[in-house]
Specification:
Elements: H1 3-23, H2 28-40, H3 47-50, H4 60-68, H5 79-89
Helix pairs in contact: 1-5, 2-4
């Protein structure tokens, strides 16, 4: 991969990450840290093990809440828009 290709890939990744972050309603930092831990870990066999990754700087309780609150509630007035934003980012 050339320097230009690498720079383009990094830029695309940062745009994707920003779009995902904007699509999240609650626990944004927790979810991003969880994704970082997941992306950098090749040995974790459970979510609990991911919470021990240095890139996940929160406690297990935050991890559980982040997963639980990842999707907006169906009573959210912007539910459809938030789901569409999340799915387009993913």
């Amino acid at each position: 991969m050339t320097k230009n290709e690498t720079a383009t890939s990094v830029e695309e990744f940062l745009v994707w990450r920003s779009n995902l972050f904007q699509g999240l309603k609650a626990r944004k930092e927790t979810i991003i840290e969880l994704l970082d831990a997941l992306s950098s870990n090749q040995q974790a066999h459970s979510v609990v093990e991911l919470s021990l990754n240095p890139l996940f700087r929160r406690d297990y309780n935050s991890l559980y809440r982040g997963i639980q609150e990842f999707l907006p509630t169906q009573t959210d007035p912007n539910y459809e828009q938030r789901i569409e934003t999340l799915f387009s980012a993913v």
